[in-house]
Amino acid sequence: MNIVCLDLEGVLVPEIWIAFSEESKIPELRITTRDEPDYDKLMKYRLGILKEHGLGLNEIQAVISKIDPLPGAKEFLDELRSFSQVLILSDTFEQFAAPLMKKLGMPTIFCNTLEVAGNGEITGYHMRCEQSKLSTIKALQSIGYEPITSGDSYNDLGMILASKAGFLFRSTEKIKADYPDLPAFEEYDDLLAAIKSAM
Fold this sequence. Notes:
Layout: E1 2-6, H1 16-24, H2 39-53, H3 57-64, H4 73-81, E2 86-93, H5 94-103, E3 108-116, E4 122-126, H6 132-142, E5 146-151, H7 157-162, E6 165-169, H8 173-178, E7 184-185, H9 188-198
């Protein structure tokens, strides 16, 4: 039984941290999993910058409220869900993802959660499980599913490589060069066609 698993940021919605970096005028927050493979290192770096600037969840959520899905993403997801179960696997956080899920038609998402103080300061984060995307793919395989996956960043490579079929979508030139055997697409129609042919 097939199931399609997609990354969220960069695939269906813009990168939240980049949007917040632009709004807050803090260029250091532009770094994402496309640039830094070590997610724990990246998050600790981000939280340090937020603390330094006195910024917290409220400010980030205010920016997220203005983010819309990437052009064509909702239609792509609707078409995909018309013939397959779809699961979004993301290293983002429930507190970030909720408003974006409404704009995407409430697909199922597995993600992480933030630890937030009463004043809105983000004091830490809790990962759903270790190597959450790859662990989820292995768990799905253990109960009879054959995942077909797509993502754009370093933290998506584990799930893409472990899947029945996996595709890069709007990835970086470096990742595409490092993984030349992975099919890479820039348009939703091409990704949709590849997913259908893999089923």
